[in-house]
Structures are given as C-alpha cells and as structure tokens.
UniProtKB/TrEMBL annotation:
Pfam families, alphabetized: Glutaredoxin
Annotated organism of origin: Crypturellus undulatus
Glutaredoxin domain mapped to chain residues: 34-99
Protein keywords: 2Fe-2S, Iron, Iron-sulfur, Metal-binding, Redox-active center
Stated name of the protein: Glutaredoxin-related protein 5, mitochondrial
Length: 137
C-alpha cells in the first residue's frame, strides 16, 4: 500500500480522476492565492451570496482571482463541500486555506481582517487607498 500512496493514493474509490475528488479540489484551491467557488461567474453571479462575495472582493480591488462555477460541475459542487466540510456555496480560499462563505467574508470585511489577510498574500486592498483619499479631504 505504501507504494500506492507515493503516487497521491486516490484510495480505493476508483474515481481518482473526478473533478470532485479530494486531489482535484486540492489542486484547485492551491492554483491561485485567491480562489472562489461560486454559483455563476464573477461577471454574472447566479445567487445573492455569490454576488456578495464578488462585490466584497471588488471593493478591495481584488481583480485577479480564480472563480469556479459549481453549477457547471455537480462533482465539484459536492467535492468542495466535502473538502471544506462546509455545506454551502460560495466558498473562499486564501492561500489554499478555507476562509468561509459570504457571511464570514462579510465579517472579515467589516472588521478589517480581510485587509490584513490580503496583505499576507501580497495584495494591497483598494480600501486602504480609499481611506487615504478621505484623509486628504
């Protein structure tokens, strides 16, 4: 069994290549510093919660992120819920770590934690510049 595990060991599920497998989801969450699993696309979110996540990222000036539409892929939709042990979509990942859904992202936005988390990724929140502009007035 040890030899099989060296190859990424997809266990005995036989579906190691499916988009909802743990390995496939892991690859997706690590492919970019900011990854969002949502319903629809950033240009056309298909649920209010997904839209809220897109708007929060936009407020912070985060334009460069990966978005995956779970409505296009039922395996992925279930796989990401299993992966994070979180029952709902959207889901936000920063640096491969599951952050939460819309409500948690909103709390982080309101508390200022999101600015700090983005800074750790080398992303400067646009809100910092907006605050500076207000100081000048």
């Amino acid at each position: 069994a040890a030899a099989g595990e060296a190859e990424g060991g997809s266990g005995g599920d036989g579906g190691g290549g499916s988009s909802g497998s743990r390995e496939a989801v892991e690859r997706l969450v690590r492919e970019h510093p900011v990854v969002v699993f949502m319903k629809g696309s950033p240009a056309q979110p298909l649920c209010g919660f997904s839209n809220a996540v897109v708007q929060i990222l936009r407020l912070h000036g985060v334009r460069d992120y990966r978005a995956h539409d779970v409505l296009q892929d039922a395996d992925l939709r279930q796989g990401i819920k299993n992966y994070s042990n979180w029952p709902t979509i959207p889901q936000v990942y920063l640096n491969g770590e599951f952050v939460g859904g819309c409500d948690i992202l909103l709390q982080m936005h309101q508390s200022g934690d999101l600015v700090e988390e983005l800074k750790k990724l080398g992303i400067r929140s646009a809100l910092l510049d907006a605050e500076k502009d207000q100081d000048k007035k």
